[in-house]
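Researcher: Structure for this, please.
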Amino acid sequence: MGGTETTQNRQCEGETLSRILITGAAGGVGTLIRPRLARPDRVLRLLDIQPLAPGEAGDGAEELVHASVTDMAAMEAACAGVDAVIHLGGHSLEAPWQQIMDVNIHGTYTVFEAARRAGVPRVVFASSNHAVGFHTPDEYPLTADTPPLPDTYYGVSKVAGEALGALYHHRYGLDVICIRIMTCFPEPPNPRALSTWLSPDDCARLLEASLAAPEPGFRIVYGVSPNTRGGWVSLEEARALGYRPTDDAEVYAEKILAAHGEPPADDPVYRYLGGQFTFPDLDADRLDRP
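Model: Predicted structure, token format:
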């Protein structure tokens, strides 16, 4: 694969398998979905700049690619022969502008352009609620039509990624689904997440729906479980793709509230959808300080 390191496990002899490229496969969400997307009739081509251990994708086949999403030649090679790309790669938290621009924005352009050159028909882009992070509770539930209101450079990069997705659909015909992922962890990490949690199993269900939907065109959907304390964002667009979530953060409520306490109504973490990403410690003049 053109200068990248590739490891292939349990490739089925004489059989053409569906092949999905997952960028950022060693990251938090990538690690969670890797075994959940494994299928006996599917190859997961897993790409990251971090080491990936082989043989962790359940019953499915794997191809491990050590490369950066910013490397066009490597991405073109990684996109060769795949049926879809799930783009998770990039910084998952706020970072100085140059890092966000290089990896999250330029890297996302590289992924879309490499997919176009390789003839990949579909890209699923991991956007974020931080693309609309400065919207307030009086506007809930936010929908796909809610105007972008990013809370950080990171959020700006997700708006840019969605815009690139729209361009590559309308100009080049790629099917592009942008998932504004909320809080995806094995369990809700805090009281706020009782409203924003996306369970790993529901995340996989949403990704499978995004891969299977016939001719989706360009879509923006929210990635969240149907939590009892939810309602912050709309699930209608995701359900229209075929998403059938089943999990509810409420099963963890007693444990979470016992550990953290019931937050006050005026807790600033609830002031905006972006929560702590809107706090002043992420102001631009602080990002480069040690």
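Researcher: Any notable elements?
Model: The longest strand covers residues 42-48. The chain has one domain: 6-287.
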